[in-house]
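Quick check before the chapter quiz. The format below is the same one you will see on the exam, so make sure you can read both the input and the output lines.
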Amino acid sequence: MTRPELRPVVLVPACNRQLGHHPFHIAGKKYVDFVRLAGCLPLVVPNAQDDEIDALLDLADGVLLTGSPSNVHPRHFDEGVHDPDLPLDVERDRWTLPFIPRVLARGLPLFAICRGTQETNVALGGSLHQAVQDVPGYADHRAPSEASAQVQYAPVHEVEVMPGGVLPRILDRSRFQVNSVHGQGVNRLARDLHVEARAPDGLIEAFSIPKAAGFNLCVQWHPEWQASSNPISVQLARAFGAACRAYRQSYHDALP
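Here is the expected output.
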């Protein structure tokens, strides 16, 4: 077992939630567990100020962008709010949207899940379907809201891996089953991004940023759910962890 102080540090941006009369910063335990499965040390980050971001990036060997009940505010891709009953997190938007290009510019490994995938696309100039189920030709990708977590996160459809990207280098298969717990999804993919996987209805389920110097992968499903018992999730976590360790080693090699 690697000593904790030698494990790569992975930043996990928090969401914002009002609990009673008080605001809280929160991050789902399953995302923190996924970072640990990758062999890395998770560091949950509350709302960062502009003058804190460089210091945080100096600490980091990787970044994991979590899923969330909240959506990216559609003003960031020049649309109004489609459903005002759905939660937003403007404080997370405020700092993660400018943060993401800085992560990529440094070559830091990036792994994004669900909302994290959507905000990466928006941060790089893309747009979202605010209600995939209302778009002709697409299936309903939401989970039943009243069902148990076991039902909500059960595999429900296949994804097809596209050639020439990150996923074919990690996985030993071209199709596999994933869960589906999202109402929003990629509409216009940001410029120069590579589609890594699609759902049977054609919806983008994963993409990467080939021009970025470091490892990166953004997935719409939830590989962090019971990850240690899912062979696909384990392979994804190990690939992310290996990239974070390589980044950490290259950083220390560059020190005088």
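If your answer matched, good. The mean pLDDT is 95.
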